[in-house]
Amino acid sequence: MSRALRKSTPQAYERQAAILRTAEAADADLSAALRSHGISYDDLIYEVSGPQRWDGPAPLSLKDFPKAAAGVPLVSFFTGCGGMDLGFEAVGFDHVAAFEFNELFCKTLRKNRPEWRVYGPPVHSGDVSKFDEVEAALAPLISEPFEGVFVGGPPCQPFSIAANQRFAKWGDNFKRTGFAHEKNGNLLFDFVRLIVRFKPKAFVIENVPGLRDIDSGEQLAAAISDLEAAGYHVHEPTVLNAANYGIPQHRHRLFVVGSRDPSPLFMPPPRNYLVGCGSVLFRSQQSVPNNETRAHKAGSLLRYMRLDYGQRDQLGRVDRLDPSQPSKTVIAGGTAGGGRSHLHPEIPRTLSVRECARLQTFPDEYVFVGPTARQFTQVGNAVPPVLAAQVGSALAQAFFR
Q1: Over 207-260, what HEC string results?
Q2: Backbone angles phi, psi at 280, to 5 degrees
Q3: Of residues 106, 156, 277, 356, which has the active-site annotation?
Q4: How far apart, in whole angstroms, are the C-alpha atoms of residue 23 and residue 373?
Q5: pLDDT tens digits, one per residue of 149-184
Q6: Please, what are the domains in the chain?
Q7: Would residue 156 show up in a list of annotated catalytic residues for this protein?
Q8: Gap between the Cα atoms of 79 and 104, Å rounded
Q9: 14-31 pLDDT tens trace
Q10: What is residue 313's three-state secondary structure?
Q11: pLDDT value at residue 121
Q12: Are 398 and 261 contacting, i.e. CB atoms less than 8 angstroms apart?
């Protein structure tokens, strides 16, 4: 439990606010000013602190799942930092290869799973749009037809609502361009081409819900039509909210699943409870990687400290989380800008990479490499591994019994 909770009294709040006001007026170094009073950023408190808590069940972890898919081979594309792969690994899938074009993401994958074959910079392009390169790398590794699973989340930026909330839809900067996007908008069909080429027994296409709705659904329907023409039974695209699956975060993801096996697929049923973000945000951050927190300015902290649970600071466009409720969606941001993070429920600062990773259900021992801002990008773009594990279990039970 944070020290902030043990000091949440009106007197303590007023003392801290006075320190911040003095530092702001003098344009003083805030870290030094806090140290001179024997406190740190993580000792700061909100004006209203303590009444909201989480006393319910713990979130699910990757250790909670049986090995339902023992030995079933898996190939991933657009792997990112490995959220989908970790979930499938946890339920017994055997990792064959990962294709990722971002070199920093590849470094994270190789650091955490040195035994995986990671095709990406600097030894390979990792670019799924380069069909011949991917085909040449994969053909020696798998059978044809492939008696395993292909999983992939083509980059979703063209379809993301969050990425465009800053812009008017009629403005030049509005980016929800879908398949008109010169590069990323066509990667779905590049992935479909690889599925048709190698004919895995099953596949999973993961994306933001906007993929289902863009162009009135015509483009996704075209991709599904191509897959059905290749002999696949494609199940109804399904949007899952991670909060309904034992994960302390609201996060909606679209899953499109198909198989050469006509057996029915039953997607994981929602749990009958939600898990508050306080279940993971009050663990100690000492001796864990990726725990750097942002050194906010005094003026920002004075605004944050007045927020109640669930309220937004309109200037900074950040929200104070309620520990009794699942977090709002973890987004790709950073300590140097480039995105927005959420505020800790009881410490008036934005979350660290590790805290965001906990909301995403990554294990604490999983390390994200690179500058802090890019660590946030990796975490914010990932599929929660625990959600992926439940999707993987459903596939195993339907097609690999």
Answers
A1: ECCHHHHHHHHHHHHHHHHHHHHCCCEECCCEEEEHHHHCCCECCEEEEEEEEC
A2: -125, -15
A3: 156
A4: 27
A5: 999 999 854 554 444 444 344 444 444 444 554 444
A6: 3-54+294-380 (3.90.120), 62-273+387-399 (3.40.50.150)
A7: yes
A8: 12
A9: 999 999 999 999 999 999
A10: strand
A11: 98
A12: yes
